[in-house]
Design goal:
Helices cover about 50% and strands about 15% of the residues. It is an alpha+beta fold and about 210 residues long. The protein has a 5-stranded antiparallel sheet with strand order 2-1-3-4-5.
Length: about 210
């Protein structure tokens, strides 16, 4: 039975996913219509959003497993780097990471079928993406930005690839909690620009086998 703390965690997680959706869709909006903004600035904006998305995923894992965080080192409560967060949670619950799934409507309700979409970002890749974004943002790029001649860039392939993998992970996903009976299920609904995000906590009929994402 979900407790008041569980429901509070769901509400916080939903807020994080609303933010994640807005950040992800803003990248697509700005790269499609640059509004006269120099392309290098567009790219750096996108890189910053990607990096924030990686951090949101890390923070979301902490929120989803708040009961475990209370038992862990105080350092994880101050962490924002995905690698540090994942390393600490891995010690407590190997299935802590979001798993993309395909929701199917059945007579009994909803069934979380195996994901069949495109490539998605696993936890190891989230760490790599976050590090790559940091390298781009902190390598003395000001000189490049202030050049008077900035060609219009139409290909933001790194942003598109990273962003799509993150959206594939988050669009419809579940997080198995440490008790292996409660599941946080999220529907990001990326086709709905209103910001609508559904997050619910459900009980699984049977415990699922141990396994990392």
């Amino acid at each position: 039975m979900a407790s008041n703390d569980d429901h509070a965690a769901v509400q916080t997680y939903q807020s994080l996913m609303v933010e994640a959706k807005a950040r992800a869709l803003s990248i697509d909006t700005l790269t499609r219509d640059q509004r006269g903004i120099p392309s290098p600035l567009i790219h750096e904006y996108g890189v910053l959003q990607i990096r924030m998305l990686c951090e949101i995923i890390g923070l979301g894992c902490l929120v989803a497993h708040g009961d475990l965080v209370k038992q862990s080192s105080h350092l994880v409560k101050k962490a924002y780097k995905p690698g540090e967060i994942f390393a600490e949670l891995e010690k407590l619950h190997s299935d802590f990471f979001p798993v993309p799934m395909r929701p199917e409507k059945t007579e009994a309700g909803w069934h979380m079928a195996d994901y069949t979409g495109g490539p998605y970002a696993a936890k190891s890749e989230i760490i790599k993406i976050w590090n790559s974004c940091g390298d781009i943002l902190h390598r003395g790029s000001l000189k490049r930005l202030v050049k008077e001649q900035n060609p219009v860039q139409k290909d933001f392939s790194d942003l598109n690839q990273w962003g799509q993998k993150i959206l594939n992970l988050l669009s419809n996903h579940r997080i198995l909690r440490e008790n292996r009976r409660q599941v946080i299920v999220t529907f990001l609904q990326v086709d709905d620009l209103s910001g609508t995000v559904q997050v619910v906590i459900a009980e699984t009929p049977d415990a699922e086998p141990e396994g990392a994402a």
